[in-house]
Amino acid sequence: MASKIKTSSTAEYFAKNLQQVGFSSPTKAVLTTLKETVDNSLDACEEHGIQPELSIEIKKAGKGGARNTDLIEITVEDNGPGLEEAMLPKVFGEYLASSKFGRGQCSRGQQGIGISAATTWAQLTNATGVKVMSKTSRMRKAIQAVIDVDIKKNKGVVKKRESKDWDKEHGLKVTFRIDGRVQLNGDGGLLTYLEGTTLVNPHLALKYKLLDKDWVDVDRVSDDVPRVPKPTLPHPHTMKLGEFMTHALLYSNLSLSKFLKTGFSRVTDNTIKDFTKHGLPKSLLPKAVGKLAESDFKKAFQSIQETDLANPSTRSVLTVGEESLAKSILRLGEVDFFSVNTRKPKICDFKPVVVEVAVARFKDRGAKAEEQQAQLLRFANRVPLQFDKSACAITHAVESVNWRSYGLQQSRNSIPAGPYVIAVAVTSPFIKFKNASKETIDASEELVDEIRRAVMQAGQKLSRHLKREHKAADLERKLQHIEKFGPILVDGLCRITGAGKQRKEKAEEGLKKILGRDTKAAEEDLQVAEERLAVHKARQKQMIGIEGESEETPQTEADVSTKKKVAKKAAKKKVAKKKVVKKKTSKKKVATKKAAKKKVVKKKASKTARNKK
Amino acid sequence: MALMKVRESNRNIPKDAKELCDRMLRDLEKGKKPLLEAIKCSLDNSFYNPKVGYLTPGKKTVKTELNVSSVQKLARTVFMLEILLNNIKTGAVNTKRELYYMAKGLVKSDRGFKALDFEEQTESDAVVEFICDMMQVYREEMNCFANDRGGQTYSQCLSVTETLLDGSKTSVDLANLGTAPFQPKNRPQSLKLKATKKIKFCLVVESEGTANTLVANGMTRRNNCIVMGAGGVPSNAVRAWCKTISDQLSVPIFFFGDLDAYTLQNIYRTLKAGSAASLIRNSDFSAPEVRFLGILPEDVRKYDLHCYSVNDKNASEARSLKKAKDALENDPFFRDKKNKDVSAILKWLIKEKIRCEQQALFSVDPKDPHKTEKIILDKIKTGSYV
After folding, report:
1. Which of A201, A303, A528, B301 gets the highest tally of CB atoms within 10 A of its CB?
2. In terms of DSSP bridges, do strands B35-39 and A420-427 run parallel, antiparallel, or are they unpaired?
3. CA-CA distance, A202 to A221, in Å (whole number)?
4. In the beta sheet, which residues pair with residue A56?
5. By the 8 A CB rule, do B36 and A487 touch?
6. Are A405 and A464 spatial neighbours (Cβ–Cβ below 8 Å)?
7. Among all residues of chain A, which has the CA nearest to that of B21?
8. How distant is the Cα of B365 from the closest Cα of chain A, in angstroms?
9. Could you say which of A478, A484, A493 has the minimum Cβ distance to residue B24?
10. Inter-chain touch B116–A488, beta carbons under 8 Å
């Protein structure tokens, strides 16, 4: 039996299981290919601090090989650093060849599967791999080649290599020809993908042409290239025993205590002492990791799990930022009102996570949009998620919010209705996806709760604007009511009492006077609401950098919260100052004690600063 | 043409209504908000007075002041009041449903009323009830009558005399009706009753079917009694008819129905002490002398009657159990010590979680068609009632 067992290469596995990585249908194949190419371009630009400029062209090049498919040509050109010649087969033709695998960074790509899978799909459906043109700043001429995947060996194969003149200083141009079908709109549409990518990448300048439509230019709204925080070491509580042992292999020459300190975050000499209190034999600590037996690993692992550790650092997460998000959302269409919200980084399931939400109401979505469900854009590490919506943590969180309390229409436990876009971005160096094609974020309780909080905050901000609308509607309703029922009431009373014309006129005047008081109160309410909005508008203009007066400027609430925070801080400071003054006048002894304490704190602070340096 | 009075009262409703409207108009002329006040007809404003034996209203009122939100309600009130006053004037009589359609007809014929259109009958019903509560008049006094439901009455010793609108009188001897029942109209207070023989008791049976069975088997032939079918929750007519029998004939009245919380709370309590919704008319629409003959818990034990269990996992049954508990805590009728025996039955039902139907007596001796009658007579004789 044993002689029949054979080992397959990784490429062979993926070639047979491309549906697992987003190539389950001709429509998805086009989107996934585009997505993987764009992700790589954006990651490369960010790593090298380049403001990305992308040009995308998708066209039908003929009939596809398979039934009911077209031959689709996807070309993505960027101004990134370009790839050295030796790297081309690795990047495009080899599975799991990645610079980002498991390093704990908020990059879009993680495993080094996606782009190789796209090459495989091109190869399987059109018998040719990917055409790449690359130029780095060190090259005089660009290199153009076709890369295929050697499926048996999981290696990239370079074909038709030639040097070419390219007027770009550096960059990469990738062309896939694949069997596929183009879907422009809807959840899984290319336009939805491009809109989403534009939204969460304010620093991206994009130009695209889809099929026979005209070229569309989307300018960047932020000149700041996001700095992807440095990778973070894994937290020991996020690992299983097997992972722990595999991780240890990388440090086999080090002693166990050194491995624990250098291989993990949040492990110090003191925590190692705590491990020993929880059952880690001291004798194991000086032993080399490579010489530890399986039972030793188990003991070490168990004691670590038993010990309470500090939460992992949240420094490794990256945010788009409220300001950039606010500017970016205006690129999606004519926005009536929007609110953005960036939460502070949080630890969910021992992983640092940051959630950002943008909710916008659009003017140009048509009358039907009032009744239709709002558009939910989901993002994981700034990559749009377009499939398997119902199982996603973001969908769960959005559906669990009571949007009616913010003035939106909503059927029970569903996405609210109306011409809104609700964009939720989850960023984390360790996002837990439900599948290898990274279409859905796993809905753990802690994560759903954190997303829900972020969405609720955005909803609360949105409701302030809607309240003004409700007040205006209320005033209108009241005025209509008076006009409708007032005269009928007086008429009826006159008929029953047999009152004459004079009494009738007097009563009508009296009625207007009485009801006028009510409408006056409503008018005052409306005025107050409008004044508040005017203030918000002015702040919003400052925020997104629009100058001059314009009534059409969309309104936001984000800055209000920041200003409130600043005001709160200032108030706290004031209180603190007052306290200090009070305390100064109190007993001298207390003052000297405090001074002593402060000194200690200062000393500690300077020590930690030195350590960091 | 005026109808016969539902109760003895010196009130001139059209005059009162005109005065009310005049007051509203005067307020409007002065630029003052007219205020309409009605007695709050709800359980939290209900008091059980053991001396009179029915639920009476407290001091709580529902005030409606004219403002932007209430202008529609007031306009509709005046609109409906006009229809009702016209009915009183012409002597026409309508049901609530008919009033709803009459309002719709007026809206259709005069576009000026368009804004007042009622979409559902519940809207026009609420306006009619508000008018009655505000003016403290019975719906029947506004010539609005419900369908004659329940109250089929059988007796061999009762004669009923009715005074007609023209003042002439007509008498019905129930003994001459054969198998047909006598059914009181919506104004039973205007009927004069006379016992042709000495009547021993009046039996009000929850199910009209069971009342029919008892009569068909000869109960009224063998006994000098009145047998009446309530037909479920007693209508105003049934309630007023019981009161008329109680007041005019001074005979003991017994209620015979199911042993369950619903019957005790909604049928027996309403018949005996009125309801929270009809606080202003309970004095004329309740018969405090009615006693609960059964089915009693002791009958269940004595005759080993078949019972159904009340499952609190079933939504509707759980709801009825909860209502029974609420009644014990909040209903002034059940809270009063005068009715402690009835409350004890309710507590027993909650505890045992069972219910027993009145027809269960037919299981005691299925071969004897008179067994149920015998049990009822025995219960009356031995004082087995509360």
Report:
1. A201
2. unpaired
3. 5
4. A76, A208
5. no
6. no
7. A493
8. 56
9. A493
10. yes
Fold of A333-462: Ribosomal Protein S5; domain 2 (3.30.230)
**Nearest-CB residue to B25 (from A482, A494, A514):** A494
In chain B, which residues have their Cβ closer than 8 Å to the Cβ of A507? 25, 28-29
CATH topology of domain B13-142: Arc Repressor Mutant, subunit A (1.10.10)
Count chain A–chain B contacts defined by CB atoms under 8 A: 88
A516 three-state secondary structure: helix
Helices A256-263, A294-306: inter-axial angle, 10-degree rounding: 50
Homologous superfamily, domain A10-218: Histidine kinase-like ATPase, C-terminal domain (3.30.565.10)
Smallest CA–CA distance, residue B18 to chain A, in Å, is 6
Among A243, A231, A288, A259, which Cα is nearest to A101's?
A231
Query: Are the C-beta atoms of A327 and A558 separated by less than 8 Å?
Result: no
Q: Which residues of B13-35 are buried (b: 16+ CB within 10 A; e: fewer)?
A: beeebbebbbebbbbbbebebbe
Rg (CA), chain A: 31
Burial class (CB in 10 A: 0-12, 13-18, 19+), A187: middle
Chain center to CA of A95: 26
Choose, out of B19, B69, B71, B83, the residue to mutate when testing the contact with A (most A CBs < 10 Å): B71
> Is A506's Cβ below 8 Å from some Cβ in B?
yes
Q: How far A532 CA sits from the closest chain B CA (Å)?
A: 26
Instruction: Return the residue of A nearest to B69 by Cα.
Output: A478
For A307-433, list the strands marked E by DSSP.
335-342, 346-348, 351-362, 375-380, 383-385, 420-427
Instruction: Give the B window 33-52 contacts with A, CB below 8 Å.
Output: 33
Count of other CB atoms within 10 angstroms of residue B276: 19
Q: In what order do the strands lie in the sheet with B291-294?
A: B152-155, B225-229, B201-205, B253-256, B291-294
Tokens of A300: 């070490």
Partner residue opposite A492 with nearest CB, options B22, B30, B78:
B78
Residue B115 with chain A: CB contacts under 8 Å = 484-485, 488
Domain boundaries, chain A: 10-218, 236-306, 333-462, 466-544, 559-612
Is B33's CB within 8 Å of A496's CB? no
For domain B152-382, which architecture applies? 3-Layer(aba) Sandwich (3.40)
Determine phi and psi for B274, rounding to 5 degrees: 80, -170
Q: How many CB atoms lie within 10 A of CB A315?
A: 11
**Domain segments of chain B as ranges:** 13-142, 152-382
Give, for all 386 residues of chain B, the pLDDT tens digit: 455 566 667 788 999 999 999 999 999 999 898 988 888 989 999 999 999 999 999 999 988 888 877 888 999 999 999 999 999 999 888 999 999 999 999 999 998 888 899 999 999 999 998 899 888 888 888 988 877 788 999 999 999 998 876 778 889 999 999 889 998 876 777 789 999 999 999 999 999 999 999 999 999 999 999 999 998 889 888 999 999 999 999 999 999 999 999 999 999 999 999 999 888 889 888 999 999 998 999 999 999 999 999 887 888 888 888 889 999 999 999 999 999 999 999 999 999 999 999 999 999 999 999 999 999 999 999 999 99
DSSP state of A102: T
User: Cα(A275)–Cα(A305) distance, rounded to whole angstroms?
Assistant: 9
Paired residues of B187 in beta bridges:
none
Q: Assess contact for A193 and A31: CB atoms under 8 A.
A: yes
Tokens at residue A465, please? 């604007």
Nearest to A94 by CA among A143, A147, A141, A17: A147
Can you give the length of chain B in residues? Answer: 386
Q: Which helix (H) or strand (E) holds B333?
A: helix B332-335
Q: Which two tokens stand for residue A86?
A: 């030796």
